[in-house]
Structures are given as C-alpha cells and as structure tokens.
Amino acid sequence: MAKYALLDMNLLVLFIVGGTNRRYIRLHKNSRQFSESDYDILLRHVAVSAGLMTTAQILSETANLLRQIADPIKSEISTFFKLFVMSAQELQPAAVSAVSDPAYLWLGFNDAAILTCLGADRVLITGDGNLHAAAIERSNGVLHFTELRQSE
Questions:
Q1: Which residues are registered as beta bridge partners of 142?
Q2: Inter-helix orientation angle 73-87/56-66, to 10°
Q3: What does pTM read for this prediction?
Q4: Is 150 helix (H, G, I), strand (E, B) or coil?
Q5: Number of domains in the chain
Q6: What is the CATH number of the domain that holds 75?
C-alpha cells in the first residue's frame, strides 16, 4: 500500500519551483543547490506515493522561501504554489505538541511539528540531516534525499 509523502520545506521548494518551470531550479536562490535531475528523482518518489501531505508550518516557510525571486518568475511560482495548496492534504499538528516534543529545543518549532506528524501511512522525505536523525528514531517511514540521489 502506497504511503503519503511529507516533504520538508527545502524539498517542497524544489517541487514547486521545478513544477513551475524546470529551468527555474537553477535561477531561484533557494533551489540552486538542486539540479533538474534532483527534481526528477523527487518526482519519481512523489509519483508512487498516495499523494502529498504538508502542514501550515511547512507551507508558511516554503511560501517565504519561494518569494525570494523577482517577477515575473515570482508570480508564476506563486500561482503554482497556490494550486498546490488548494490540492494538498494538510495535516494540523498542534503547536503545544511541537513545543512539548524533546526535539523542539535543538530542531526548532517547524521540524518538531513535522516529527509529530509521522505515521504509519506516510513517509517523510527530507534533506535535513538533523531532522532525518530525529525522525528515523521514531519511524521507519523516513527517507534522506541524499540517499535517494545515491540510489539512482
């Protein structure tokens, strides 16, 4: 049975920027660390998932990162992001759960909120080593993007 994919904000930036226009991956300062091949790898994993899940926290940080480019590209990306938000399944982690999580003190609010969303029906895909380390202790549904690159 396919699991839902939960992307961290950097990978969601890659997904949105690449989904808008693959050529923008190299132009956008917050996706330059990725390549078009990375986007293809991410798409392959998302395509076999049951769908994408996200949180308001991930969306908020992603939206701020996406806007760090000039128009007309910013408007194109914002339009694609809007379409994504309107179709994505949004999880609602409680803020009190995030700040009560022991990982909050070293990972911060957003990543602690992500940890509270781990579940048997979803897989977290992240490029963040600290988030990956904390998540792998709690769930076997965690993939590090570097490992996905290396397995291609």
A1: 124
A2: 170
A3: 0.95
A4: helix
A5: 1
A6: 3.40.50.1010
Range of the domain at 28: 4-151
Q: pLDDT in tens for each of the 152 residues of the chain?
A: 899 999 999 999 999 999 999 999 999 999 999 999 999 999 999 999 999 999 999 999 999 999 999 999 999 999 999 999 999 999 999 999 999 999 999 999 999 999 999 999 999 999 999 999 999 999 999 999 999 999 87
Residue 112 has, within 13 A of its CA and on its CB side, a CA count of 16
Contact 137, 122 (CB under 8 A): no
Residues β-bridged to residue 123: 5
The whole-angstrom separation of Cα 114 and Cα 124 is 9
The tokens for 37 are: 């091949």
**Residues ≥6 apart with Cβ < 8 Å to 33:** none
